[in-house]
DNA sequence: CTGAAAGCGCTAACAC
DNA sequence: GTGTTAGCGCTTTCAG
């Protein structure tokens, strides 16, 4: 920067002004152009550290997650957040925590590094409260929401997911649609079960409790599904998660039935729906993880910079874009998007 | 820091000396103690940004990956790297790239942020070359290696993985052990196939080519496995990956055979082995992802600080710890570790 | 053994 | 319009 000033025959502050785009009406155009030219020649790049020492802005975002780094879906979210951050000139430091103590630790470290704001994510653990230590920082919750709706969040819409998934089975011409759920009290269970019922009802199907099979794991679960097969002979299955879908696959195979041909499955997961149905065939339907991350980052950056995000440069996606500029706190619910074949 | 100096009645430089542990033989012990006490009282934490402005050391590490963020295994690696980094007072900025251009971009950004060193990872793409732009930075390759062995790396040992997995089938008392491989030319294929053969040979089994079944995907693959079942009736299966294991599960189910009871499977993946065998039963065997990340970070930090890593504080793990202090470049090959039940 | 002083690269008042 | 100046918080010679 000093070199540029010398090369252009101006002072350092002029260079600073120009390079920060604050020259409008302060530095004469030709001079500004000269400065820019010299800067280019010398291959100047800002030193963000030095800058942040003055500005108290680092353009670094902290991503706090419990287990985010251990699911493939989380990766997509972080990827999206990183891309968005990168677009706006930010970087993300991701930290994973296990338990309160380490969380506070990581937060403290992140603060020392001067992050401008935080993502706070709890994978598939939807109601959470943001630690007090994040108090006066901009925060966006990802795949989680706070009890009193104070914090902007982006999270899956369990009801809609199950609704769409069930509709898919109906489209595939299934007549006896089973619900293979979880007998543990999962947070997602209520919304999904309601979505299943609503989809049936909206399509003129009567809800039949004998088609509902809430199971735990392993042998007993497998036998319960086996029994359901024998007694009700379902031709469509809504599965709460992968493990439950597995039982259906196994039972079908034992009967010589092929999933995707003789019976249809739509399996949900915390972050994904996979479907093997006759028509449409062999597709996976997922939450727009990448986009969730992208949106979350845009939201966070807009909070930091106190200006609306520019949605024109958003990624090409089939995911419906939620309105991000709604007043804070905004709750964004995600729908599902198509993702290609389930078998690779 | 100024406040501490005032409170303790010393100068700022003394405070700096003490707080950086460079007081030995320079500042009198009681004075140093006083400084430390005041620092505690005032809740002092260093400002890493200001510090790095002087030292040209940020204690930030850059993690460059292509698709690292999209596999669950990658998450484990990053997690381990982060934990190690955190232990030594470092942070990690992870960037994901797609293609050369964006990679160079991310590298440039990371450099501007003053990272002290780089992880360079290419998931399951084992031979790679580190971009020239990383030239004079400390670099550790993760799950990749360079052609001319110039860069320290940590990567899976395909031969050993397949060897161990096959041994497992032998332990489970399998007599006709099939190899379900990949007819595409995968990098991992050679090592794994060799490991399979070596394990058989070492246990006194004759290698039987008719038990080898290299397939592609979908219907044809399924039929090929079906044929193998009919013709050779294997009781143990080494599967190159998940997809291949799936065909075996399907074929077994159709014959009323239960995997883990009637037949045994050991399935490998780029990063994981899962086994369903009679004895030992229902276990997953994985690469020590977490540890890989941990070790990689230790290695990188030791390169940055030009001193051997302290391995006494390493994470509790059943994974065999590789020697990290071998001369650079060190190639670290990972073995497998037990991980609990395959079905949750 | 301790303190004074310079400066890392940049920004932002405030003069000129 | 442009330059001067004073730091941001810390480290590091170099005197004393």
Automatic annotation (TrEMBL), chains A, B:
Residue stretches making up the HTH lacI-type domain: 1-55
A Pfam family that the UniProt record links to this protein: Peripla_BP_1
Alphabetized UniProt keyword annotations: DNA-binding, Repressor, Transcription, Transcription regulation
Gene3D superfamilies the record matches: 3.40.50.2300, lambda repressor-like DNA-binding domains
Keyword Chaperone attributed: no
PANTHER family: HTH-TYPE TRANSCRIPTIONAL REPRESSOR PURR-RELATED, LACI-RELATED TRANSCRIPTIONAL REPRESSOR
Listed name of the protein: Catabolite control protein A
Organism this protein belongs to: Bifidobacterium pseudocatenulatum
């Amino acid at each position: 920067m000093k070199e540029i000033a010398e090369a252009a025959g101006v002072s350092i502050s002029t260079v600073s002004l120009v390079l920060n785009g604050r020259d409008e009406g302060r530095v004469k155009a030709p001079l500004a152009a000269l400065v820019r030219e010299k800067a280019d020649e010398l291959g100047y790049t800002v030193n963000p550290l030095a800058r942040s020492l003055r500005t108290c802005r680092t353009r670094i975002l902290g991503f706090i997650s419990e287990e985010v780094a251990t699911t493939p879906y989380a990766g997509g979210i972080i990827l999206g957040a990183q891309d968005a951050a990168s677009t706006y000139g930010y970087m993300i430091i991701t930290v994973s925590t296990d338990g309160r103590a380490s969380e506070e630790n990581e937060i403290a470290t992140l603060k020392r590094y001067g992050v401008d704001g935080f993502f706070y994510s709890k994978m598939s653990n939807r109601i959470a409260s943001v630690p007090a230590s994040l108090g006066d920082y901009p925060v966006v919750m990802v795949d989680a929401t706070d009890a009193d709706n104070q914090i902007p969040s982006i999270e899956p819409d369990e009801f809609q997911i199950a609704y769409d998934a069930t509709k898919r089975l109906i489209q595939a011409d299934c007549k006896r649609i089973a619900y293979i759920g979880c007998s543990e009290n999962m947070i997602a269970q209520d919304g999904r079960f309601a979505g299943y019922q609503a989809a049936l009802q909206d399509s003129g199907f009567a809800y039949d409790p004998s088609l509902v099979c809430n199971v735990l794991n392993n042998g007993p679960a497998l036998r319960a599904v086996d029994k359901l097969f024998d007694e009700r002979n379902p031709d469509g299955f809504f599965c709460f998660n992968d493990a439950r879908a597995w039982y259906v696959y196994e039972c079908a195979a034992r009967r010589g039935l092929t999933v995707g041909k003789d019976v249809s499955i739509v399996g949900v997961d915390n972050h994904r729906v996979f479907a093997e149905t006759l028509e449409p065939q062999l597709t996976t339907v997922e939450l727009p993880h990448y986009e969730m991350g992208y949106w979350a980052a845009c939201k966070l950056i807009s909070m930091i910079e106190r200006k609306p995000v520019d949605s024109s440069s958003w990624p090409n996606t089939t995911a419906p874009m939620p309105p991000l500029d709604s007043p804070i706190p905004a709750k964004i619910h995600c729908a599902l998007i198509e993702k290609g074949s389930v078998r690779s």
